[in-house]
Design brief:
There is one protein chain. This protein is α+β, with helices and mostly antiparallel strands and 189 residues long. The protein folds into two domains: 2-58; 66-188, Jelly Rolls (Sandwich). Strand 2 (23-32) and strand 3 form a beta hairpin. 20% of the residues lie in helices and 40% in strands. It has three helices and twelve strands; from the N terminus they run E-E-E-E-E-E-E-E-E-H-H-E-E-E-H. The chain is globular and about 55 Å long. Helix 1 packs antiparallel against helix 2 (136-151). The model has no long low-confidence stretch (mean pLDDT 84). The chain has helices at 112-128, 136-151, 185-188, and strands at 5-15, 23-32, 38-46, 52-58, 66-72, 81-84, 88-92, 97-99, 108-111, 157-163, 169-171, 178-182. Strands 8-7-10-5-12 form a five-stranded antiparallel β-sheet, with no helix packed on it. Bound molecules: zinc ion. Zinc ion binds next to loops.
Length: 189
């Protein structure tokens, strides 16, 4: 990733709203994406506590609609960065997990492991709301087990983003596991 980093510039600093002690630097970085596009990342990080946040702004809008697929085979692949735009549908077919397009998580920027943590959290909340004797529990437990294996890099899976508007990205650690299938605009009409 560092070789793709263009600039890394502190643009503003302010007192941390979380711990009231540390100083937060807003760091601006511009990344060149594998397809030639650029992306601006604003990173907020406190130098004292754990408070941090990322915001991502695509700098070009010529990203084509299509289906992005990444095979996750080992721990290294889990570090691949991902940005799902509100128009993107995110799926892990092997685990039957889906995030439908929607404005709910506009700047859904994280890495693959971050996506798995979000799923694990959501599934865990769902499980805790089931009755003790609900037969669905064992199915959910199996899913939780597989998710945990995936987080540890021990479960191979596919991450797929279908984006009919364009704007979602995956920045793969290993390009050979990445594929992009363009959807022609005329197919969408
Ligand atoms: Zn702080």
């Amino acid at each position: 990733m560092s070789n793709k980093k263009r600039s890394n510039e502190i643009i503003y600093s302010f007192k941390c709203p979380s711990c009231q002690e540390g100083l937060i630097d807003i760091v601006k970085s511009i990344y060149n994406l594998p397809d030639g596009d650029k992306m601006l990342i604003l990173k907020f990080e406190c130098n004292t506590c754990n408070f941090h946040k990322n915001d991502v702004i695509p700098l070009t809008t010529n990203i084509e609609p299509g289906i992005i697929t990444l095979q996750i085979l080992d721990e290294n692949d889990l570090k691949s960065k991902i940005y799902r735009s509100p128009a993107g549908k995110l799926e892990i077919p092997e685990l039957e997990l889906i995030v439908e397009p929607g404005p709910r998580a506009d700047f859904y920027y994280t890495n693959i492991q971050g996506i798995l943590f979000r799923f694990e959290n959501a599934v865990s909340i769902y499980r805790n709301n089931l009755e003790e004797n609900d037969p669905e529990r064992s199915k959910i437990d199996a899913l939780m087990f597989n998710l945990r294996q995936a987080i540890d890099g021990k479960f191979k899976f596919t991450l797929k983003i279908t984006d009919l508007q364009g704007g979602s990205y995956i920045i793969p650690q290993d390009k050979s596991k990445y594929s992009f299938e363009k959807i022609e605009k005329k197919d969408l009409e």
